[in-house]
Structure formats: structure tokens, C-alpha cells
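Archive maintenance. Older records in this collection stored only the sequence; we are now back-filling the structure field for every entry so that each record is complete. The fields below show one back-filled record exactly as it appears after the update. Entries are processed alphabetically, and D-2-hydroxyglutarate dehydrogenase is next in the queue.

ARCHIVE ENTRY
Title: D-2-hydroxyglutarate dehydrogenase
Organism field: Lysobacter daejeonensis GH1-9
Length field: 462
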Amino acid sequence: MTDPRLERLLAAVPGLRLKTDPADLEHYGRDWTRRWMPAPLAVALPGSVEDVQGIVRWANETGVALVPSGGRTGLSGGAVAANGELVLSLERMNRVLAFDAVDRTLAVQAGVPLQVAQEAAASHGLAYPVDFASRGSATVGGSIATNAGGIRVVRYGNTREWVAGLTVVTGAGDVLELNRGLVKNSSGYDLRHLFVGSEGTLGVVVEATLRLTDPPPPTNVMLLALPSFEVLMQVFAAFRERLQLEAFEFFTDVALRHVLAHGAQAPFAETHPYYVVTEYATGDEREEAAALAAFEHCLENGLVLDGVISQSDAQAAQLWRLREGITEALARYKPYKNDIAVRVSAMPAFLAETQALLAQEYPQFEVVWFGHIGDGNLHINVLKPDAMENDAFVAQCEQVTKLLAGALQRHGGSISAEHGIGLVKKPYLSSTRSAAEVAVMKGIKQVLDPNGLMNPGKVFDA
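Back-filled structure field:
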């Protein structure tokens, strides 16, 4: 190791693990976006809060920027290290620290995978309800840094609602214990919420106290075939009125075709233009009858064309695969992703405008729609033709994203529902946040990260 800055780091943090192999630099220096060439200085793998604090203080002394890293499953370039930064990976800080049966909380280190936290909660007869398809590799710290949502927001809300306390190392190298798991705490500003969704730009989340809840009730899964995009919100309203919804997810025939090509089983003999997979509470005959009533109401009014109700856990998993397998099935196409949100009440008007916009502007591309309709979140994936150069493809997509951002601004929406801003959405932040809001955010960053070393260039330019 010849770089004197790294030698100084090892002296400042004894026993710190460092990776400098080119393959490691490439692996840890990027996330799922694959749009930027990773070029970090090195990868640091701390084992304790003290190690993280030592790394941040070293960064302030040497001027080397830091990129916090969790599972790197992000889709907005928030974990990209492309300019000689030190990647600060939390993967070694992966222990479940404590369970409190009275408070019903679980304390974990930030590098714990989401699925491990879920399993730890289940071992105590409780549930950590934040859930999404990358649960096996996404970490608790990363999900907090992006305020991740997922497939059950319609029932449980985003990550923010389940964070009872945080331990963070600020960009200045200070360790803060935020909220300490309290249910009520009106003693000034709740700094915990500044770090939820901050994308590593204010500091490093090192430990979290998670709220737990009762396990979900027995549920069933229903797959619905819809005749048109326009009836989607009517179907949602019919099911929400009659059932306790755990999830309500939408996808198109194009999305289904890719998942089937990836090995899933076709749900119907015929192909339909739109689909919904919904999971709902059911434990008695009354709830089963309500589910059938919702389906029959939609069928009689021409809102659905067909449906299937899971008869076993295995069949429920098959139906869910049709939705959760989309991202994996599309990966080879290097899709350009838009992750957008509007109020549920504004969804019909926004959908009509956006559908027309994309049909007009993307006639040469295959567009795959899916999303969490129950909470107003749509994912729009534009697939790159194999013969097209990636730079030209991205340039065309970004021109339409500018138009999409304008539509979102008119409908009071957000350019990023759950993936964060990172590098990908930074040019469109002004469609969601006013200049005054951005100025406040920059002021907060200046206080917590005075030298601008925490994930620089992400969310906004300093």
C-alpha cells in the first residue's frame, strides 16, 4: 500500500480492514444503476461505531470524501464512488444487538440485511413490516438512508414510521444518539428524521432501533386481470372499501411477458392488458365473502376480466413472483427507471396525462409500467434496444424525464418516491422541492457536514 493517505488511515483506525483490489473497487464503487464508472480510492470495512468515527475524522483531516455503502441495491446512483472517494461499507457491522419485549423494539447495526431483521423480529413473535423484493441484500442502514417503501406501504407506511431511534456519525465526526427509542419526545427538533432519507449526505447511520408490530393477520393473494388503465383506481377503491389491504400492486402485460420469459408460470389462459396482485387480511368466512364481493362487484361492472385467488402458500408465492420478479427479469436490458409519486387522489388525472406523454415521446422504446398504486407510486422502466449505444439511450430518456418532471410538478408529485435522488434524479429536484427548501437543506448539510465530504454531489450540488 503506497498511498500515504491510506497509511495514515490505518494508523488512525487500528485493525481497520481495507480493500484496494481493482475488482473490489469496481464491486463496492457502484450500485444497481451501472451508469457511472466506479473509481474509489479504497473500500473501508469498519467493525464498530468507533471505527466509523475514526474514518470520518480522518476524512476531515485529509479532505478525502466518503461514500457510505449498504447493500448497494439503490437505483439512483446514491452509492456510486466515481471520483476517488473512500467507500465506507457497513457490511461487517451486521449484528442484531438487542430485543426489548416491553417496548417491542429491535436494535441492529446498520449493515444488517432487511431479511435478517425481519427474521429476528419473527423469532420473537413480532414483525418488522418494511418489505421489498431486494430484502436479502438491502440493508437496514441503506433502507433508512433512502426512506425505503416497498410493497406494503399501503398498510404500514414507509421506513420512517418504524425507526424509533438512530445512532449516527455526522460528517463532522460527532456521534449522535437520536430519540433513543422514545414514543413521545417533544424536547426540541427530532434530528432522527433528518437522517431518514438523507442518502448518506449528512453522516453515517451506524445503529438503528426499529419498532416492531404484531405479525400480519392470515392473508390471501388475488390476481386480477383488468381491461384498461383507466379502471385501475376504481378497482383499488372497491377493494379498499371492503378489505384490509396489505398490498395492492399493478403491472402491465409487457411486464408479465418478461417475467414469464424469466421462468414464471402463466396465470391465465388468455393475455390481458393490465394486472393487479393484491394481498388482503382473511381469517374467517366474513372476510372471504368480502373478497369475493369485491371481485364480483368489479366483474359485474366491467372493471376486471378475470381473477384467481391463491389456494396455498405456494400458489400465493407464484402470484407474487409475477410482480416481484419484474426488476430481475428486466435487468439485462439496462432499463432507464423513473420512480415517481403523486397523491392517490391525483393519480387518475396524472395517469391520463403521463400515459399520453410516454406514448408520444417513447414510440421507439418498450416501456414497462408497474408500481404500488395503493400509495401513489409508479415505476416506469424504459428498455434499451440491444443495438443502441447506452449514452444515446440515456440522453433520449432524460429529455422525456424533463417533461415528466413538469407533469409531476403540475400534479404536486415527486420525481422520486422511494429510490432517492442520488445522481440520477438530481437534475429534476427542482420539480419537487422549491428553491427555498433546497437552500434549507444545503444549510442543514453545512452544519452536519461542514467540509462537504459526505457523499458529495448526491441529491444536490453544494
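Update note: The domain at 96-211 is CATH 3.30.465.10 (Uridine Diphospho-n-acetylenolpyruvylglucosamine Reductase; domain 3). The longest strand covers residues 203-211.
Entry marked complete.
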